[in-house]
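Revision sheet: structure tokens.
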Amino acid sequence: MLNIGSTPVSSGKRGLFQNWLFQLMAIFAVGVALAFVGCGSDDEEDDHDHEDEASMEETIEVGGRQVVVLEGKLNADRTLSADYDYLLKGAVFVEGGATLTIEPGVEIFGEQASNGTLIIAQGSKIMANGTADAPIIMSSDAAIGSRARGQWGGLIINGSAPTNQGVTFGEGNTGAFGGNNPADSSGVLRYVRLEYAGIEFSPDNELNGIAFQGVGSGTVAEYIQVHMNQDDGIEFFGGTVNLKYALVTGARDDSFDWTDGWTGKGQFWVAQQYGDDADNGFEVDNSSKNNEATPRSAATIYNVTLVGDPSGSESDNGMLIREGAAGTYANFIVTGFNKIGLDIDGESSIAQAEGGDLVVKNSVFFENGKANFGDEKDDDGFDEAGYAADNGNKEADPGLVAPFSKTAPNFTPGAGANAVSAAAPPSDGFFEPVNFIGAVSPSNNWLSGWTTSAQN
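Predicted:
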């Protein structure tokens, strides 16, 4: 059921689309003629263009709104106008070098019945440039109150940046990715909220909320929320893309995950887990096939808040770094996980830590169930606690305002976060200078207004 009621917090522009309307539409689908929107005058050129675009596809009027059905392959440049809503029917591929432009405030719904999914192929781009007042929403077509994890596919972006697997193919037949262009651009994601995705094709083959597959550093990705995803929230498969201002809430598996040689940058990330079903805050791998594969996963990430759920039966480790992964991780707050706060696992990643190529520093770990620092399986002999102390990490209460609230979370730190001094990020044009740890400044809650905590 297409839910026109899933609105941005600030827009207030939709009325609910009731079940019976969708069912009626389905019953009479064969007899429904295509609805063509009339053209405007020469003085209304922008409206004219939008109407021409909508007229090329099936358009259904629902509750006074025009809903454009997208399916198959989009091989030409296309703009999705805020004058319409959009329904993804099956796997929708943007390919052939086409650019999909999405205006602020657009709502896109993935159809449950056909596993609606949006896939940006190598060489094509998505230009999704929302705003705080008009974020771009990608959600389930279920009714409010009936939404749940895994009701549609999600967003997959395939680029031509290097991976340590060469050119390879994404899960669920989502296309080829990888190559030799670290500066490759797949477009822009800004103020994008993606909800209730992650369909399961088969056991252990589920889609992530957003999959950055071989995506390059020319891509802009900032102010992104993935909410209530069936598999990982955001996952990187190799590539060099950078990500700033990111929130993952209620992911069933890992909140942030990467593998296959991702070497990008990140700053201001929040993960909040729901303990009914969750795994790790960070699951960081190089390659399970060859721990020494190059390029080696070696991200540089500053200012992150990872929140588990001590009241739930799930929610495992805050940071699990393994399989040869390296990187620099600084100014973190990690709290509330039921197992370990920081676990550096396996000979290859331990070697990276001992050699100085894996650094976790200037961070606070607090009340993680089994231990703040340690080994979940107690089988590798590495002293995470000693390593953490040597790198300026502390066990202290950061005083987060309301980190475990599932209706009105607040990740602003208190005075306890001053137990460590913030490490200065690189001055390279991507990172912002900071004097605090965690993802949220006491003076700037960048999460306000465009994110959601709704769970159905």
